[in-house]
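User: We ran a pulldown and think these components assemble together. Before we commit to crystallization trials, I'd like a predicted model of the whole complex to look at. Sequences follow.
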Amino acid sequence: MQKDFIRFAAFAAALGASATFGLTGAALADSIKIGINVPQTGFAAADGKSALIGAQLAAEQANANGGINGKTIELVIYDDQASPKSAVPIATKLIEQDEVKIAISGSYSGATRAAAGVFQGAGIPYISAFAVHPEITRSGDYVFRTSFVGEVQGRAGAKLIGESLGKTKVTLITLKNDFGKSLANGFKDAAEKFGIEVVSEYEYSIKDRQFGPIVAKVKSDAPEAIYASGYFFTAGPLVSQLRAGGIEVPVIGQEGYDSQKFIEIAGPASEGVIITTSLDRDSDSPEAKSFIAAFEEKAGYKADMVAASGHTAMKVAVAALRKAGGDDPKAIRDAIAGLSVEASTGTISFNGLGEVRKDVQVQVVKDGNWHRHSIISDPELLAPPEK
Amino acid sequence: MLAFELLLQGLVQGSIYALIAVGLTLVYGLLRILHVAHAGLFTLGGYIGVLVTNATGSLALALLIAMPAMGLFGIAIYRTCYQPLLGRPPYVALIASIGLFIMMEELFRLIFGPYGLSYVAPPLQDPVGILGVNLKQAELAAMVGAVVLIGGLAFLAGRTRIGTASRATVTDPKMAEAFGVNIARIRDINFFVGSALAASAGVIVALLNNLVEPTMGSVPSYKALAIIVLGGLGDLRGTLIAALALGVIESFGTIYLGSFLDRDAIAFAFLIAVLMIRPQGLFGKA
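Assistant: Here's a predicted model for the assembly, 673 residues in total across the polymer chains.
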């Protein structure tokens, strides 16, 4: 018995050693490091998991496709728990210790905003995959974002409700964080333009799952549509409780809902819920199609917006590294600024502030899956901030 | 009408708070320990409820398994975590409890995944009309469950030998022991009952939200502390009333104060207001 154990231990050690040597050998010879901070524990771990798998998928695909001019991509991954106070030391570690020349955030706004300042200070390009806070790209010219700022998506929501759905009396149910607040601000900015009157607004905290009082009040407000910001873990219970409370008017959400898990939680109540997001499940684009299939195979569950955003951000990083040709951060930054990349979330290019320019995908829940509702293509309305 | 609906919603929420806080107050009354990890048992109860219901289709069976299983788990926590620390100052046990709670949350995430679990076919979702207001069956079940379980507990505490022994132990452990009360057994029973009630709350909350997450216990972990302080630490009746009152105040507060005061902040604003007037809590003896 003991002999077996020793043999097993020796085998395991040998295996471990060869794996380690294999890695460091490769790392020394011909690999390029890309840093990524992503929540792997804590409340945002679910989104972090999707974002990371999306990013890993893009790196694997690039490696299978010749890597970066012959060099293999090596991801350096740190868990930031979506917390600003973890993100700062992680950013420093990525820059000082791991000496990455480009990094990606697969995290929420708080952590991303904190890390962005560190990367900007060090002159290392940093790409935010799906964090929405407007201040992130204002850290400086080395910071980019592949997703919409909240305000842009809020304006798209107003157009969707006022123009496409033709509803004018709207109740806002707003998640009380930077994500929900910026969506609500964008929505209210554009509301008048689309003839929308905001009849009431309620706020909830990210920890809330019980919306009974809000449901009761919304019922008495009798709006024609509800614009509710949130993530799948708040929106799932919210939508199911709205429907159980007898409220039948359309519920419009955004990319925070964008997960199969939302449909699982809300069940039949999710049918007909419409969201503005970045991933079109019924897309004809080969990029989106191949991503959706490859992600489901790798992850074992259906692709969501966060996964597509992680994939997109990594794809942008890879394209920039290929274009820059070397590991000079300045050249990599300039490469990102001038890119136009076909990705699962659309054709990605950046404005002077490092904000993405792309269309808004509108998806609706039909028969227990996300499907295309429409696409909002309005460069003027969707113009990201320039400074 | 709106006021009545808000009142009902507040009572639903208050019933859940009560089911969680009762266990905490039992433990505090007996051992003077703030048992933060109690909220971990609430979460695990929810997970077991969803897993058993999804596997068997029976919510009743889920409750029958989750409640005693968490009861035994509660005893195990007492024996392995708190008993060795009984001679130390109370904050030692509190720190152990917080550590245990964080560990449990991360274990749930590792075992059950970060996305949380949902009922495949959630039971008790149909509406029931009460005086013109629609409630989900599950919401009604939360209220009825709290009344039956806590009422039953109060009856047992008042009318049975074990209940008398338990109350005697709370009042004066040494004297109770001198009169032949088996204190170790009383402590086991308290942990068992309190943890089983938390499990029932976990199953009910899972029904209301159709979601059990690793961090589901984080808000109840501290809000239940506020409730037992309000109720006059260790007082069963006070805890019940404080829980219901807080539920109702939060319900109205969410609508009328929500724009500047967070729902979770309301509990603590209420707590501060009460403690300024009655430092011993709403029902505590001075």
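Chain B is about 75% helix and 5% strand. That may be worth checking against your pulldown data before setting up trials.

User: Thanks, that helps.
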